[in-house]
Design brief:
The termini are far apart. This protein is α/β, with parallel strands linked by helices and 427 residues long. It is 54% helix and 10% strand. It contains 19 helices and 8 strands. The longest helix is centred in the middle third of the chain and has 24 residues.
Length: 427
């Protein structure tokens, strides 16, 4: 494979053979899953381009930013505030963790029965195939689960620049928990200032808040349009937009989403859908799905249903709620940032009744016929929470299917059989 970006990848220290193999697999999967869809909105051409250049043009843009004095911060979690990064003259990007890679090497450092997302994080580093990771000036981890908390101890020793910053996330929604999160955001702000050499001001922090608020508003506009029947966009395409959300240029992403929404509104008015009217409608709930984790959505939508919402960190959990930008001091704006992020209902929290309520609210808002709860193998928080989710939905007379899987294709047949039976039940 010859690419105009190979010199850039080589300079970043990527393993070119492994990286080219990854891109070939990614390109083949994208072609089979995405480009073979029918009735796609024209606005998805932008996201097709983004995926075709996900390790190319976007990386070059980030390197150009670095050359101009801007810093790049990589993150694995929605609890890391992009607002603070932007205020400190840094770009925040999501890091690679959606596919198996270099598993033999990973299992020399981690137990075999570690969740796929954590193992993927290590695999992309050990396989030297993630240019976002290699180009980042700071990598932010967070202790949202015990697996991540302990894994970061090892990850910090194998990063290219030994540049890992770990953020402490509270485990309970309490006064003390909020105070902990606020303190962590103040500590993170100081770390960003130290990294960039830029003092964050009220004006720069307010501008960062407004930029991300605008981006979230555009994404939420897209999510609400999916309530229409027929659904104007497939769940796969909406998931792709959610996956691009953390890494694209914020202004360009916002503009592209709004243009897509303009088109979707016209499709709704014309009753034109990605699927026929009355197609069974599914809400996916649970673990995040990073690029190129498209397995379950592809199974669902090739089995006769349409996904109309994602109750996930790669989904509504990352776009719900805005930040009040009216504060006139740093403390007031940090309070507002804390208030917004403290509403995130990750499964790490105990108790987590807000999440159960949000799932039921999303079922109603998106006119879903049923819920598929997606759990990654060995992801204890979401697997433990899947049972109370199922019970709460049963009490509300909402059909639910619990799925536990990983990034491999080995269970595709079994998964498809179960999903098809669930969809038939919804009919």
């Amino acid at each position: 494979m010859n690419s105009p970006h190979e010199a850039m990848w080589q300079k970043l220290g990527l393993n070119l053979d492994s990286h080219n193999a990854l891109l070939q697999v990614l390109g083949g999967a994208y072609n089979d899953i995405y480009l073979n869809q029918k009735n796609r909105p024209k606005g998805m051409e932008y996201f097709d381009f983004v995926l075709s250049e996900i390790h190319g043009q976007r990386i070059q843009e980030l390197l150009d930013e670095q050359a101009a004095g801007r810093k790049i911060i990589g993150s694995y979690c929605v609890f890391v505030p992009e607002e603070i990064c932007l205020a400190g003259n840094a770009s925040l990007v999501g890091l690679c963790s959606g596919a198996d890679f270099a598993m033999e090497e990973v299992e020399k450092l981690l137990p075999r029965n570690t969740c796929a997302l954590i193992k993927s994080t290590f695999g992309f580093r050990l396989g030297e195939v993630c240019p976002y990771l290699e180009s980042a000036d700071m990598i932010v981890g967070e202790n949202t689960c015990d697996g991540k908390k302990k894994a970061y101890e090892t990850l910090g020793t194998i990063l290219p620049k030994k540049n890992l910053y770990v953020m402490d996330i509270p485990q309970m929604k309490s006064v003390e928990g909020r105070a902990l999160l606020r303190g962590e955001y103040l500590r993170f702000m100081k770390a960003v200032e130290k990294l960039t050499g830029v003092t964050i001001t009220v004006e720069s922090l307010r501008e960062g808040i407004r930029t991300v608020n605008t981006k979230r508003a555009a994404m939420h506009r897209l999510l609400k349009l999916r309530a229409a029947d027929p659904a104007p966009i497939s769940g796969l395409d909406a998931l792709l937009a959610n996956q691009v959300f953390p890494s694209d240029n914020p202004a360009r992403f916002t503009d592209s989403i709004n243009k897509l929404c303009d088109e979707l509104e016209k499709r709704i008015e014309a009753k034109e859908g990605a699927f026929p009217a009355k197609t069974p409608r599914i809400l996916i709930s649970g673990c995040p799905m990073a690029v190129p984790n498209w397995k379950l959505p592809a199974v669902v939508e090739s089995s006769g249903a349409v996904i109309v919402g994602e109750e996930s960190c790669v989904g509504e959990r990352s776009t719900r709620n805005q930040i009040d930008d009216s504060g006139t001091t740093i403390d007031a704006l940090i309070d507002a940032i804390t208030d917004r992020y403290f509403k995130v209902d990750c499964a790490v929290f105990t108790p987590n009744n807000d999440r159960l309520q949000h799932i039921k609210e999303m079922v109603k808002a998106y006119n879903a016929d049923g819920v598929i709860h997606y759990g990654l193998q060995f992801c204890q928080p979401y697997l433990m929470e899947s049972i109370p989710v199922e019970r709460a939905l049963e009490d509300a007379e909402i059909p639910c299917l619990r799925v536990e899987t990983d990034y491999s294709m080995e269970d595709m047949g079994q998964l498809k059989t179960r999903v098809e039976a669930f969809i038939e039940q919804l009919r």
